[in-house]
Amino acid sequence: MLKSENGLLAKAWKRLSQSVKSPEAVHERSASDSAVDPRIAEQAGSLAPIVWLLGKVQSGKSSIVRALLPASEDVAVGSGFRPCTSSARIYDFPVEAPLIRFLDTRGLGETSYDPGEDLAFAESHSHLLVVVLKALDHQQDAVLKALVHVRRRHGNWPIVVAQTSLHEAYPPGMQHPDPYPFVTDDPASLASAGVPNDLIRSLAHQRRMFAALPGSGPIEFVPIDFTRPDDGFVPVHYGLARFHEVLTRVAPQALVTALTEAREDAGDPAARRARPIILGYATAAAAADVVPVAGMVAVPGVQATLLHKIAQVYDVPWDRRTYAEFAGALGGGLIARYAGGYGIRQLTKLIPVYGQTAGAAAAAAMSFATTYALGRAACAFARRRKAGGIEPAEVRQAYAIALAEALRMVKDRNFTGANGDAGK
Amino acid sequence: MSRKTGRGEPRGAFYIRSAMLLIALALPVFSLTVLGSIWLWQNGAVLIWAAAAFGVTILIYGLERWLLSSAMSSAEDRSPEESGGSEIDPHSDADPLWSARELEAWADVKALAESVATEQLTSRDAILELGTRTIETVARRIHPEARDPLWKFTVPEALALIERVSGQLRGFFIDSIPYGDRLTVAQALSIYRWRSAITIAEHAYDVYRIIRAIVNPLTAIGGEMREQTQRQMLENVRSAAAKRIANVYVREVGRAAIDLYSGRMQVTEKELETTVSAATRADRSALPTVAEPVRILFAGQTGAGKSSLVNALCGGVRSGIDVLPTPGGYTFHELVREGAPSALLIDAPGITLSDREITELADRAAASDLVVWVMAATRVDRETDRRALEYVRDRLHSIQNRRPPAIMFVLAHVDKLRPFKEWNPPYDLSDTENPKVASIREALAAVAEDLRTTADQIIPVSLDLERPYNVDAVWGRILERMPEAERSRLLRCLTEHPSERPRWRRLWTQAVNAGRVLTSGKYANK
After folding, report:
1. Are A136 and A169 in contact, with CB atoms under 8 Å apart?
2. How far is CA A136 from each of CA A59, A184, B53, B110, B305, rounded to the nearest angstrom?
3. What angle do CA A97, A99, A102 make, to 5 degrees?
């Protein structure tokens, strides 16, 4: 039993040292420095959960993406979308190795929309349906038609309905009601909280439109208003806390975890930018063990690309000498000890029964954890390096902490579930 | 001790330096005048030059006179059409409801208006005196038997009169006097004060004329003739404007005075009530078949603001406005006025792309006199609008036996555009600094592109219940786009007083002049 664990660890360690030391990888990568490797992106994408946004043009879908991913603020989300199916576009976050993906149905309500193709695309991933409506827009026939189609096939899929642009119902000069009153839909208490009567009735009318949907999955309504800072509404992301709360309650665990991971704050700006990238590449590495994809990039390749990406984020030159320094700072023996002690105990808890699937899952978990830890260690290294020094102890500590963190995350991500039932 | 230490210099030196600089700049230019004159004199061409300059001035003067008089006469031609419409008898711009005696009074007023000596209208008292004289003329004509005809009215009637004349004059100033809507009274006064400076300049010029005559008598004669002609030209323009203002003033005062002494002012309040209560919902089948009503169709998507617009146009009618879609099909709002044919504002159900409903919409549009297409500025799902509109346009183009109804566009809820917190109407759409204006213009351009029209065809409005904005511009545009016959009928529905009709007719011009709608040159001139 211990032997097989050791075998697994040994394999992981071999990959790690390969990726750190292998000079070929360096040359191969440096050729396409800033370019995104589509194979790695696809690999990560095969495990990344999908948020399926269903709503008319300019109903506020992009601002929901922005609000859910604070790390994406400097990305123009609108233009980050690219065509995916014939009727939908997709936004991968981060784009080089998606940790989470947003599927946006284009032109809904303008052409006769057939959700079949998008449904097939989303079905194969862990996902959540988020319906986006402007609170005062009652012309939602196309959206409802698509939802009926989806729920006929998957009656148990949960739906979160975001009712946006609340301010359009406000009289001039009105601010958002504070505290957020929409935790209830009781008209009397909403009215006493200062919500305009038209808005209360409009929201209730939209709720009624969903009452006739087939299926038994939960349908949650969240009135929100995500505005721009210069619009003058406080807070800018009105109802975001409630939105998170509802997502946590009804969304699949993998999605909740991915969202939480992407949101976690990580100190300096570079680290904040690097964090989702590291998570995405770690996902891609995990996919190498569980998902059969043509032209798979093996774990060392993924990790080598990740190191490059981090060097870019920190604006540190990454050459053979730097590699050697980083490898030296990590120090082989120490990692083996960490992996052997703490890591194995965690792994034993994680995988109660060994079998073919469990073996694959364990390998995926290990790949995820080591890639994540390697990325975090590289961050620590690059930060020091930029300041001009090297602090091996700090790099090692970062690796150890990150490894423990990653193993905790792995439990929730449930990588083998990717192809199975997406409901949970 | 105004001297400053270091690099400071005495103030006097500064002035001297400035003066020298000025001389250095001006001398080369002005010397040309002198040198040119000498050259003309040496070459014996002074006479030829003087004759040519005089000839050009005479020519321009002639042209100016001719243009001015034709502009005056075209203004005269226009006024009957403006205030009456085609259905009115040869008594130009008179009210068809006036009795024979009132028509006589009107003739007196017009004679007075023509005979006003504008040179005398130089003071406030003179203007007031002219107004009093007008009123007196009317009073004597209408109440010849009364001992003191001037006081044959009640106080509310007098107040209503003041209100009406003010309203009419305001429209005239905004429409017809250059910068009439911008120039403040203070500015006008300061211009008046500057006259004395002009007098001084004139005296100085007189001295120059004498010197000129001594130095070169021949040139002086030519110059003198030219200047006299130019002066006459300016005088003509000035007196033409003064004459027009005086003319309008007398006519408006006279028109109001006729209404005042004939007792028509008394119905003002009652009239307001009937407009409001008369707007009722009625099905088409229930309508009287005596006269075909004027029909205006309002189309647009659910929630775009059709019902709110119709209600705002009806004014004060508060029932039936809802943020929820109106259940059922077409809703009719009828404007009824006793003895006048009615107008129907038809509120169509929200557009869908189902064949049956879109065919019905096109049929209704074809049976209307005007189609008003309403969109919400806050929504961009205009593909439905585009398709439905395409279908309706095709249907309207296929009408052979009469002029197809025009389609006009209204963009509702512009108050909800960015910046969200700002709403301080009115907005001048030519203002390039204001971010709200920028948003409105952007929205207009986007809608225009989606619907294959131009931005100046779309009227931006706000339909807030408490403070609707620019709805009068919609009325103005409706009246402007209506076929002539229907326009007269609609005007008769809108107001019982023919004298108020010019006010309605001016709504569009006012909106254009205030910049509340976008205009291409075509509409600004119309």
Report:
1. yes
2. 11, 19, 72, 57, 11
3. 105
Which among A138, A167, A173 has CB closest to B302?
A: A138
B256-276 pLDDT, tens digit per residue, is 777 777 766 554 444 444 433
Q: Which domains does chain A have, with CATH numbers?
A: 2-38+268-419 (no CATH), 50-251 (3.40.50.300)
CA distance A162 to chain B (A): 17
Per CB-CB distance under 8 Å, the chain B contacts of A134 are: 378-379
Coil, strand or helix at A163: strand
CA-atom Rg of chain A in angstroms: 23
Q: Closest to B324 (Cβ–Cβ): which among A56, A58, A138?
A: A138
AA identity, residue A342:
Y
Question: What pLDDT score does A242 carry?
Answer: 94
ipTM computed for the complex: 0.71
Question: Is B450 near chain A, with CB under 8 Å?
Answer: no
Cα(B331)–Cα(B322) distance, integer angstroms: 13
In the block, tokens 């000079």 appear at: A23
pLDDT tens-digit readout, A197-208: 889 999 999 999
Give A37-88 pLDDT, tens digit per residue: 788 888 888 888 888 888 887 788 888 888 888 766 555 555 566 776 677 7
Query: A44 burial class (0-12, 13-18, 19+ CB within 10 angstroms)?
Result: buried
Chain centroid offset of residue B34 CA: 49
Q: Given a cut of 90, is residue A222 above it in pLDDT?
A: yes
What torsion, rounded to 10 degrees, do the Cα atoms B86, B90, B91, B96 define? Answer: -50
- Say what the pLDDT of residue A166 is: 93
- Parallel, antiparallel, or unpaired: how do β-strands A237-238 and A225-226 relate? antiparallel
Q: For chain B, which domains are there? A: 93-262 (no CATH), 279-525 (3.40.50.300)
Look at residue A207 in the predicted model and tell me its pLDDT: 93
- Cβ separation of A57 and B464 shorter than 8 Å? no
CB contact under 8 A, B381 and A109: yes
Give the count of Cβ contacts less than 8 A between chain A and B: 63
For residue A341, what are its two tokens?
């002690």
* Residue range B27-84, pLDDT digits in tens: 888 888 889 888 988 888 888 888 898 899 889 888 877 876 665 555 444 444 443 3
Q: Could you give the count of Cα atoms lying within 13 Å of A220 in the half-sphere of its Cβ?
A: 21
